[in-house]
Amino acid sequence: MDDRQRMRKVWEYIFQQAVTDDSDFFIDLDGDSMAAAALVHHVAEEFGVSLPLFEVFDRPTPAELLAAVRDQLAVG
Questions:
Q1: Domain presence at residue 60
Q2: Which of 7, 42, 48, 56 is paired with 31 by a 20 to 30 Å CA distance?
Q3: Count of alpha carbons within 13 Å of 56, Cβ hemisphere only?
Q4: From CA 20, how far away is CA 48, in angstroms rounded?
Q5: pLDDT tens sequence across 33-47
């Protein structure tokens, strides 16, 4: 499973629906602050990086959030 699929899996778990596009918007999936906190938590479990909560709102798609994860991994 590649990173894109892993990120989609996290989003699907949080929103309990298929995420078929890497550009699905957090708010369009009825995302709120509780969902954002859950995303940050599950992203940390899945990818081993700790993202600040604001990243979910600044990068509100699976593709953009994956870019934030990759940025964190590059920093170390």
A1: yes
A2: 48
A3: 25
A4: 24
A5: 999 999 999 999 999
